[in-house]
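Dig into these lines:

——
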Amino acid sequence: MSKRWVYRDLPDPETVHSLASGIKVSDTLAALLVQRGYSTFEETRAFFRPHLGQLHDPFLMKDMEKAVNRLSEAIFKKEKILIYGDYDVDGTTSVALAYGFLRKYHSNIDYYIPDRYDEGYGISETGVRWAAEQGFTLVIALDCGIKAVSKVELANSLGVDFIICDHHLPGPELPKAFAVLDPKRLDCDYPFDGLSGCGVGFKLMQAFAIQNTVDIQELYLYLDLVAVSIASDIVPVVGENRVLAYFGLQKLNKSPLPGLKALKNLSGIRGDVTVTRVVFGIGPRINAAGRIDHAGAAVELLLARTEEEAEELAAQLDIKNDLRKGFDENITKEALAIIEEEDQLKKSFSTVLYRENWHKGVIGIVASRCIEKFYRPTIILTESNSKATGSARSVVGFDVYEAIAECADLLDQYGGHKYAAGLTMNLDKVEAFKERFEEVVARRITPEMLEPIIDIDLAIPIEGINHKFFNILRQMAPFGPGNMQPVFVSTNVVAKSVKQLKDIHLKMFLSQEGSKASLEAIAFGFGEYYDAIADGAPFNVAYTIEENDFMGNKTMQLHIKDLKLD
């Protein structure tokens, strides 16, 4: 699938040159920093040298004082406290952090994860009634609850107080909980609204520690959980999240919790754990628990106290992850075949597919896989509890949540954000929803949104890439949304020593005319270009610069994202 190269605006040359002189880096590196919004010595120092003192005062968040007072009161009075969280990575890491931290100061505490299949997303009536029956008088809901108006009303009637810690967009009415912590509340002046659900839970624990003069280092023992949530929930890696991710990844690499260490080993991660390695290695294994069975197994692993216990629990999760992969691959093949076989569907602006027997736990993954082949907003639906339930994924620039909202009269419920959402409807509404959603997408989407893009930071010569350049470049990590790994373009490149790997990948050395500089490059999935490139055809190439660690031998390598023959 051809990709459109979109170049970022070139920053002001005077600002770039001034910054380059001030911090003693090349103009290329200074341009990257200015593009990201760092143009002064102080700003770049804070960026390159994050410290935990940069974390905001948690009491700046609306309702924080109420929340901490209620939590402290519950602990003082020895009330039963329930930590309630969603079944994905963000939810399970949130529960592990809050429960793991608070159990040191309060023994009358438990946790609850709703069943994906019986209860669905978020706070459930089943969960509320169970909490009341078991005598819990305070529930801390993490990564969910901002729209649970009726469920919180039920809890209030049953004598159960809720503290909601969420980061999703609120609806028109906030739940009447004891306290609602959500930096996306319109009436909340907290300086940063991009926290993960686990991040909001962390802020509550931080406030509790401050109020009760608890050693804050006790809370920092769980920063690796926060980093995993930030990476897996695809929240922006800027501001407070960058600080949390930076120190969370440090902990994940040096002294991870036993459960995360076991997952890291199982994932086969060599070298340092990065945001990308969490997303593709650790995150899916945590998610697999809730996709295939019950997410309580993931929390149990994350709370493991010994390496032996963690290794045993991680091995069980790995089996579930293998099952998840099988479901994912089979359903993806089936879904792609349906699109290929229906001419009308191939020509559509959206994809909405429904099969009653598809596994609910992987439909979000399948939606993403379909977008890789047919680049357009996609919703995959299956049957659950006599309803059609689905996961939506979107393409760059298109707000799938708003598109679904235009179909709200056909739905029982929906929630999510710009690029991912969930929805439920009666089975007899599926066809009407397909037609309405297609109409909405066709009206809202632009031709540019239907073409996958690669964001290019700068065009640079290959001879400008050296170890000094790379060493400064990687200090810009952790990379993620809002601070993506820089993508460069080099033009009129030729390849030497081109090798095909498994017929579909290429390994080669790249150089440019007039320069003796040559760098190793890897191009996954570009095998079709072998003949032209091996014959010496010049081409333009978009790439990131990475470190290849092979048997302990570390070398610089260009990771090719796209190439265009001249």
